[in-house]
Batch of 2 targets.
Target 1
Amino acid sequence: MAETMISYRYTWMIHDYIESVVDQREYQRAGGTCWRNPFSCFMCHAANILLQQYMNKTINDAVILDGTYGEGRFWKACKKRIRMLIGVDIYDRKKIVAPDIFIKGDIVSSKTIDALREYAPFDLIVIDPPYSTGITSTYARPADHANSFQWERIVKNIDKLATLQESSAVLLVKGMIRHGSNGIDYATTPFFISDNAHSYRLMHILYYRIIHRRRTTVKRLVYNNYVYVAVLVRK
Ligand SMILES: C[S@@+](CC[C@H](N)C(=O)[O-])C[C@H]1O[C@@H](n2cnc3c(N)ncnc32)[C@H](O)[C@@H]1O
């Protein structure tokens, strides 16, 4: 059965794009793969809904490019359903989920973009570059810290990806809310993204609430933070 909506807990519109909050637990409730990989269930679900909304397709018919593939964790819940998944990364890491095609390279270099033309147009492009917010520093890979400048660099060059997509195709950019103020303030990144994306229109910011549970010797700590996915649509 076709999915028709993302269960937004809260939705509002202050700017000319929609903002919504979803909660990790809403996805975990589905159990199975979603219990252990709620973010993948969120991404697969969001990708499917957005493809239906903007491209009149589902992930079953879609050609998807993940430009910062990493281990491919995003696709754990839906790889089998995707028609074609292309992964790009500057490192050829050990994959949790293997893409159909993998290209080692810098996603915004002309060399990589030229190599990707063979598989274009992409119905959906996903970008999750490393960022160093301080919040996840104890978990993040050292390589991600060393490359944390890539988030800003890739977003500044985001229009280069537009040559791989047709009108109304979707681009998802993952970012993180940062509570400090070193360098770019991640709370203002929707504006930073839309200022650099002249070939795309920012439609939606999906805030995803992550719940961390940690048991210490004295008490059980529960705290949360947010990541977000900016939804851009090719003009
Ligand atoms: C946060 S991880 C992505 C994790 C991935 N979404 C997953 O589910 O496994 C960021 C990735 O971006 C890659 N990266 C950094 N700069 C890049 C660039 N310029 N082009 C392509 N990949 C890049 C890193 O090597 C790293 O694997």
Target 2
Amino acid sequence: MSTYNGFDGAYRQRAQDELNAMWTSGLWEPPSECTVCGQTSGAIHGHLEDYSRPETYVPLCITCHLILHMRFRQPDLWEEYAAWIRAGHRPDPQTQRGGFYAIKKGFLVGCSNHWPGRKSNPARRATYLDALAPVRFTHPNAPADQPF
Ligand SMILES: [Zn+2]
């Protein structure tokens, strides 16, 4: 896991382990519906902007989640995906493994046209994706000794 928002891979993994423990124990409801596209099948993750507060996770399908984390490397494709979502599309459900490969392939090709999905939502002016920082930054709660 690479550094994100100033939290290094080990820090992020600890937060993920805590999330998994809370979901497994039943103390917290596991994520079941993507906040962005409404997907309820396949792999649904908990996304964190602030890894010091795992309870603030945002449920995201694997497609929205992986693409979100690739936005700095592929900003044009990221914008294209965000627009596709705003227009009301929902990516098809993906398994953990299948989603990773499908998305990685799409990004390598540099084209979102083959993202499998359909129009399932009303068009919206903005989604959670549009509220994310478009450039790398260090979260105020990130440990001070870590570069982003
Ligand atoms: Zn989604």
